Amino acid sequence: MAEPAKKKTLISHGIASQNRRARYDYTIGETMEAGMVLFGPEVKSLRAGRATLSEAWAGERDGAMYLFGCTIPEWQAGSTVAKFEPGRPRKLLLHKKQVNELIGAIGRDGATIVPLQIHFNDKGIAKVVLGIAEGRKKHDKRNAIAERDWARDKARLMRNRG
User: What predicted TM-score, i.e. pTM, was given to this entire model?
Assistant: First the structure.
């Protein structure tokens, strides 16, 4: 007897997409949460966990913040009427004070705004976590790896001892 096909579960609460590489490539300073302007099929695609943040960044356009380079693929079961462009810039919903703070951070040398994750809050609304980041040099990345490895080894030694 054939097993029934497993239905892919949708994410109602929790992380839809992460940019794990960002914490390696950048030193993350302050973080803040922002809403996004999305179409209906984009939300369904996010709930399926299909977004890509690896090449994404946030920037200012016409006095508002936008998310560039984030790819949310089209929802397969969507109608032909509700098609959208997967890589389009998406407007971020922030207060004016937050926008001014982010624009000021961009003005500093070497600072950029990187999306760290997209998640759904308790109300089921998609949010993106933005981090003000400064690029790391190659030797800084090696130091971060060495510190992480030492912390892991130290925890293992302490666990085995006691």
Answer: 0.77
